[in-house]
């Protein structure tokens, strides 16, 4: 299209530049045919946080946090208390009795404060200010009713924002992420190391909380980029160098390692693309997600599915996006969604690989392809069986709306996908058919209410 | 190359700017013969070439007591319009048929002069010599210095098209009533002011005289009075008397609102009095209906407060002769604020009635129909329609100054009418007024009216009646009064209360009378004083007034040449119907309900001039039919008034030969129902108030239509382009030359469905890169293609969002959009269409799109197409049913279904929003492959 628009100036650039998988304009399986744009933020919207069935919070780089109604698109309240960009946001359910309804949000910011907000009364409930460095990560331990802040030191707080205990100072850039482990332990990613801390809980004997370093795991060769819990027994970490390590959550030994995703590529697959992959960030593990069986890894621009049973990558899509993937998640409806710096959101489906699949050269698909050739094709990147690739990641749709990097997304069962982006916008992607049905339903309800006698709408 | 854009400018302007001049290129046998009377400049529409004026205008004239009838001003104030038309002569004509009550003075039995709260009279008259026909609205204004305190004025809408005036009678009447009200309100105020000043003068004079008397008394102590003293005493006495008289007058004028307040159409004018801050004690402040006495007291008490602004003068015993003094101008008579208001109002009236009758009628019809379709009319209708709504709102707002309803609840409960307008309250206003009308009082049951509503839908007898009517006129005389109406509307529905439309018609009574006299070359064909609503109690009062004031007038029937027997009296209504086509015509209007006519006492002089038949239902939309049965019943049961009859035969005989009339009357009586239905027909013609906004965008429409026609002819891919617009996919017109792109965009904009009552989602010229919001906001965009770096960004964004938009490259003549295979556009945009004129094509498009929105409406509001009909019905089966509905019931192809579905979504969202649901604006799109079309 561009070529057509620009005349012949940029003849073949598009085709040569990108070999990313693409789907044509015909996306029959893509249910998202309606979108609503929410405007309000004035800077990069970095985080989204679901509060309940109909509300979510968005955190912006200008320090503001908005709470939205996903149904009406209204800004329910604006939480303004931070002066710099938000670095972490976490929800804290009131108690287990209240069905997980969140009424407290904790936000950490580069202004070295952490604020607790009540999102019903829009009040700033508590504020902690005496941090020496930016808090980069927050973790709520529901079972102990405490929260942890991770920066250059790890601190443990109770609900009233009393500092219970803290660790010493970490030089190496501080804690970048925290996860909860069984037995009152937490794992913190500090530089290349994973450090396991144990919390000794205040009890009747001693009302003194304590946090102590139990073990330091130094298996990664580069900075740990992401850290997730898979289940009670397993957690996974991924590093900048493209290492993925599966750990045992109980005894903190590593179960498996997958190093160097680029090696998965066999030479005959697409030899010319390997060169393009050689920059280090291309293999950085950007984000991890998991379901019971697999770990999904966003590695550079590619997506990989690592099966925990067979301990190997079972499917991948090495050119899932045009640039680094920011966030991935497996949705409850089975879809696998990724969003990227290229401004697009893509929906994937993991399919078992047919036995005799034909290999289609990836170069066939052109980002700029349009016109009469806009026919959907199979985009799976195939691997011979001996590499363990038994499934394919099938692109079933892409959502194009943002003009900047898509930072994060949220999925609402009843409302669809909410994405936030560096273009200051939040977009709600909805299933058009369902929305249309809902509107019809509302319409007939209204008609009934009006009893057909609404003077403005005399329908007789 | 034919399709070149350069050709457009040349082809565009031709052909539709000027009327057709002969030479259509057809063989002679196929051509329509030219209009036989056509001359150089005449069009077939100007039927009366005799007219010496070029188009309709409004004339205000006065019957001056010094110089007789004289024209005061015309609207528009343009010499060319009147041309050689003799305004003086015509003023004489129209003023000479003023037979309304202008009686003032000492009515028998009363020692003081009485003010008449005179109602306006409305007459249609024609001057066949001049080729002029006029709706004439007579009114009187009070002037302390005038003879009898009144100055007769009239406003006339003068047209060369008789039909137009007859057909628009009710609208005209209602509009002019508004203007008249405005004038009179201002006049009452000014009059009251004047009276107060006069009183002050008199008061001052009295004190001066008293002082002088005392001095004289002192001077000659001898116990007898000198002649001088006696003179002074007489003078003093006369001053005293004068004071009493003036006080009485003032009380009367102040009582006016008090009395009128009981009527819903009383118009307080608080805002004005607020404006007139220099008149602190406004004597006519609107009184709350709840406690009129109180406020009256207040007024009275405030009345004699000294005013700083006015220094009283001594009044000489003998005032100057009336011919010496200069009469007040209209501006002086009427407060200047009201005067300008009135002029504005009249100007807008003049604008509104411009143009050919058929055009007016169609416009009213169309508008009325559109208003019925509040659910779907936003889709493709002009913004002008909404503007009309807005501006009419505005209009009514400004009018509301004069016209605001005092007690709306009153309106909604017709039952209250009788109580509220009690005999007493009326009596005072009417007692002194000589009335020469016979009246029939009808009271109708609301239930019947509703029951018979259905009958009123059959089109019309009017034509017939009309012809008959005219035929019966012996038009040897140059002026014919075609119709008059005097109506009393107790019930005024202001525009601000549209809900009233649904409320049942209030019971109403009707006064019909008929007089005829043909002297002095004036033939009054009919007058129809009618009160749209008169409470029962009022009737006796009215009657009494008639008896008292003008015994002669009572016998109007007796004067009539034929047979006003009791039987006939009892059945007046059929007569009404046959009598006056114009009535039937206008009666349809909802205006009727908004009618604001005030009680009309009739002048005693009338019966010399006019014979008044019963007729005219100002307000009969449906209520109209109901009257029959009830009237009869009532008239049978209680013949309250011997005069309350307007005999059908009486009228018939006027209208046709007696034999015929008999036959007719028999028919009428034998089958009144059928008769009714046939007459009422007309009542659908103008269901809505006359549009407030004239063809504002007329030119724009024509242009757009012409350009669209051009587009369809020149671009073979017009169908997919229009399809994109109709199914809600943004169409981007890309081009370098702004004017060209703009033209294309305007052309295509007529296909863009609106999202609601907001501006069309069209952006004619954008120069910045597109954003996702733009697709949500705009459905048609003109986009700049330029050589600058920013334009590359524009193209990149275009490329990125290609999913949401179709792109029409105006420079290279290419189109990239989904394919269209449906059938609808073949008819909507046929490139071989025979339509040549832009406005015609525009209308064609409108009508096609209206069909489409009707389908969308059906689809949207068809319950089973969207919701399960069985319990636990699966989504799939509903979807199937929906598809079947679209395909089989509505006969739509896949693409056409998409259009309808999109429109349906718009309808849903609009309805939900209108009924208060908050909806997020959405952008709907499809994942459809695009195709590239080239010429």
Automatic annotation (TrEMBL), chain A:
WD repeats lie at residues 38-78, 318-352. GO terms for biological process: regulation of autophagy. Signal peptide: none annotated. Keywords: Repeat, WD repeat. It holds the Pfam family Beta-prop_WDR41. PANTHER family: WD REPEAT-CONTAINING PROTEIN 41, WDR41-RELATED. This is WD repeat domain 41.
From TrEMBL, chain B:
It is found in: Cytoplasm. It comes from the Eukaryota. It comes from Xenopus tropicalis. Belongs to the SMCR8 family. Keywords: Autophagy, Cytoplasm, Guanine-nucleotide releasing factor. This is Guanine nucleotide exchange protein SMCR8. The keyword Cytoplasm applies. Residues 266-301, 551-578, 675-694 are annotated as: Disordered. GO terms for biological process: autophagy.
């Amino acid at each position: 299209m561009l070529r057509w628009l620009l005349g012949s100036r940029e003849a073949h650039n598009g085709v040569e530049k990108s070999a990313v998988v693409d789907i044509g304009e015909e996306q029959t399986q893509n249910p998202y045919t309606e979108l609503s744009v929410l405007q309000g933020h004035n800077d990069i919207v970095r985080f989204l946080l679901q509060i309940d069935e109909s509300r979510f919070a968005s955190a912006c780089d200008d320090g503001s946090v908005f709470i939205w109604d996903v149904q009406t698109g209204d800004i329910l309240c604006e939480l303004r208390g931070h002066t710099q960009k938000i670095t972490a946001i976490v929800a804290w359910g009131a108690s287990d009795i209240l069905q997980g309804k969140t009424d407290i949000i904790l936000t950490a910011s580069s202004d070295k404060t952490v604020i607790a907000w009540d999102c019903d009364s829009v009040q700033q409930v508590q504020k902690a200010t005496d941090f020496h460095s930016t808090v980069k990560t927050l973790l709520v331990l529901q079972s102990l009713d405490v929260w942890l802040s991770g920066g250059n030191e790890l601190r443990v707080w109770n609900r009233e924002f009393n500092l219970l205990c803290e660790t010493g100072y970490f030089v190496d850039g501080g804690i970048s992420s925290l996860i909860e482990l069984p037995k009152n332990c937490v794992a913190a990613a500090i530089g290349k190391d994973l450090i396991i801390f144990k919390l000794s809980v205040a009890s009747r004997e001693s009302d003194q909380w304590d946090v102590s370093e139990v073990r330091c795991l130094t298996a990664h060769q580069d900075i740990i980029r992401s850290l997730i819990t898979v289940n009670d027994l397993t957690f996974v970490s991924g590093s900048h160098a493209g290492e993925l390590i599966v750990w045992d959550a109980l005894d903190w030994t590593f179960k498996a390692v997958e190093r160097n995703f680029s090696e998965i590529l066999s030479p005959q697959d697409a030899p010319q693309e390997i060169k393009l992959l050689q920059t280090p960030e291309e293999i950085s593990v950007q984000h991890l997600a998991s379901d019971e069986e697999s770990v999904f890894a966003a590695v550079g621009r590619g997506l990989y599915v690592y099966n925990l049973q067979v301990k190997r990558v079972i499917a991948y899509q090495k050119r899932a996006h045009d640039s680094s993937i920011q966030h991935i998640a497996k949705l409850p409806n089975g879809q696998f969604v990724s969003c990227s710096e290229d401004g697009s959101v893509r929906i994937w489906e993991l399919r078992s690989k047919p036995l005799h699949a034909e290999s289609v050269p990836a170069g066939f698909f052109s980002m700029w392809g349009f016109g009469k050739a806009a026919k959907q094709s199979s985009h799976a990147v195939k691997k011979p069986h001996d590499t363990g690739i038994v499934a394919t990641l099938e692109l079933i749709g892409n959502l194009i709306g943002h003009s900047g990097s898509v930072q994060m997304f949220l999925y609402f069962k009843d409302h669809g996908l909410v994405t936030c982006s560096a273009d200051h916008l939040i977009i709600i992607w909805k299933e058009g058919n369902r929305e249309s049905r809902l509107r019809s339903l509302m319409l007939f309800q209204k008609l009934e209410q009006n009893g057909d006698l609404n003077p403005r709408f005399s329908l007789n | 190359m034919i399709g070149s854009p350069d050709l457009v400018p040349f082809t565009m302007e031709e052909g539709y700017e000027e009327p057709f001049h002969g030479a259509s290129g057809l063989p002679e046998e196929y051509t329509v013969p030219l209009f036989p009377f056509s001359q150089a400049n005449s069009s077939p529409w100007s039927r009366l070439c005799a007219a010496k004026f070029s188009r309709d205008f409004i004339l205000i004239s006065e019957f001056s007591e010094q110089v007789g009838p004289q024209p005061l001003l015309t609207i528009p104030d343009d010499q060319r319009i009147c041309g050689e038309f003799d305004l003086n002569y015509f003023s004489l004509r129209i003023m000479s048929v003023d037979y309304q009550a202008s009686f003032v003075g000492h009515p028998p039995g009363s020692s003081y002069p009485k003010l008449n709260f005179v109602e306006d009279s409305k007459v249609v008259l024609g001057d066949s010599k001049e080729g002029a026909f006029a709706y004439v609205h007579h009114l009187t204004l009070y002037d302390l210095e005038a003879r009898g305190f009144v100055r007769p004025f009239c406003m006339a809408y003068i047209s060369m098209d008789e039909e137009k005036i007859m057909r628009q009678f009710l609208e005209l009447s209602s509009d002019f009533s508004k203007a008249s009200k405005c004038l009179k309100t201002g006049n009452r105020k000014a009059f009251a002011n004047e009276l107060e000043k006069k009183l002050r003068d008199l008061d001052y004079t009295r004190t001066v005289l008293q002082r002088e008397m005392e001095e004289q008394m002192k001077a000659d102590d001898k116990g007898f009075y000198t002649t001088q003293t006696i003179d002074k005493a007489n003078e003093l006495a006369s001053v005293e008397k004068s004071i009493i008289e003036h006080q009485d007058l003032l009380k009367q004028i102040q009582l006016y609102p008090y009395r009128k307040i009981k009527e819903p159409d009383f118009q307080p004018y608080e805002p004005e009095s607020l404006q007139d801050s220099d008149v602190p004690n406004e004597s006519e402040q609107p009184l709350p209906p709840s406690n009129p006495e109180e406020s009256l007291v207040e007024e009275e008490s405030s009345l004699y407060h000294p005013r700083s602004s006015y220094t009283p003068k001594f009044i000489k015993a003998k005032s100057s002769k009336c011919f010496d003094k200069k009469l007040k101008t209209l501006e002086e008579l009427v407060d200047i604020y009201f005067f300008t208001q009135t002029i504005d109002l009249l100007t807008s009236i003049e604008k509104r009635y411009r143009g050919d009758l058929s055009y007016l009628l169609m416009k009213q019809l169309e508008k009325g129909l559109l208003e019925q379709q509040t659910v779907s009319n936003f889709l493709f209708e002009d913004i002008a329609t909404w503007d009309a709504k807005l501006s009419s709102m505005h209009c009514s707002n400004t009018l509301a100054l004069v016209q605001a309803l005092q007690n709306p609840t009153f309106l909604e409960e017709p039952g209250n009418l009788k109580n509220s307008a009690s005999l007493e309250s009326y009596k005072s206003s009417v007692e002194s007024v000589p009335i020469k009308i016979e009246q029939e009082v009808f009271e109708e049951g609301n239930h019947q009216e509703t029951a018979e509503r259905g009958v009123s839908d059959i089109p019309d007898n009017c034509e017939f009646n009309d012809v008959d009517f005219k035929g019966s006129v012996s038009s040897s005389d140059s002026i014919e009064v075609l119709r008059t109406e005097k109506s009393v509307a107790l019930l005024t529905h202001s525009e601000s209360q549209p809900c009233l439309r649904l409320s049942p018609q209030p019971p109403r009574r009707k006064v019909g009378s008929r007089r005829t006299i043909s002297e002095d070359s004036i033939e009054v064909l009919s007058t129809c004083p009618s009160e749209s609503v008169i409470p029962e109690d009022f009737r006796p009062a009215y009657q009494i007034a008639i008896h008292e004031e003008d015994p002669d007038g009572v016998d109007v029937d007796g004067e009539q040449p034929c047979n006003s027997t009791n039987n006939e009296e009892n059945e007046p209504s059929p007569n009404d119907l046959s009598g006056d086509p114009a009535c039937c015509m206008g009666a349809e209007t909802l205006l009727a309900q908004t009618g604001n006519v005030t009680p009309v006492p009739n002048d005693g002089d009338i019966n010399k001039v006019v014979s008044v038949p019963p007729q005219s239902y100002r307000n009969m939309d449906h209520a109209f039919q109901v009257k029959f049965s009830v009237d009869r019943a009532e008239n049978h049961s209680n013949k309250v008034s011997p005069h309350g009859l307007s005999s059908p035969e009486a009228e018939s005989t006027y209208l046709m030969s007696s034999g015929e009339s008999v036959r007719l009357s028999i028919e009428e009586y034998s089958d009144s129902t059928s008769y009714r239905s046939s007459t009422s027909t007309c009542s659908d013609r103008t269901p809505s108030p006359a549009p407030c906004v004239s063809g504002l965008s007329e030119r724009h429409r024509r242009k757009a239509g012409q350009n669209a026609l051009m587009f369809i002819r020149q671009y073979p891919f017009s169908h997919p382009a229009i399809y994109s617009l109709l199914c809600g996919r943004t169409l981007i017109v890309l081009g370098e030359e702004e004017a060209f792109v703009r033209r294309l965009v305007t052309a295509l904009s007529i296909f863009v469905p609106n999202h609601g009552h907001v501006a069309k989602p069209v952006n004619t010229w954008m120069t910045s890169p597109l954003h996702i919001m733009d697709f949500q906001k705009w459905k048609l965009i003109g986009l700049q293609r330029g050589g600058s770096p920013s334009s590359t960004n524009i193209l990149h964004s275009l490329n990125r969002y290609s999913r949401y938009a179709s792109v029409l490259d105006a420079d290279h003549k290419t189109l990239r959009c989904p394919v269209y295979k449906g059938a609808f556009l073949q008819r909507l945009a046929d490139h071989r269409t025979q339509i040549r004129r832009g406005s015609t094509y525009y209308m064609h498009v409108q009508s096609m799109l209206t069909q489409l929105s009707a389908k969308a409406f059906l689809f949207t509001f068809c319950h089973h197409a969207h919701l399960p009909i069985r319990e636990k019905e699966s989504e799939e089966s509903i979807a199937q049913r929906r598809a079947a509905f679209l395909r089989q019931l509505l006969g739509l192809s896949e693409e056409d279904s998409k259009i309808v579905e999109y429109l349906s979504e718009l309808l849903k969202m609009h309805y939900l929003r209108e009924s208060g649901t908050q909806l997020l604006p959405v952008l709907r799109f499809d994942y459809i492959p695009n195709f590239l079309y080239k010429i």
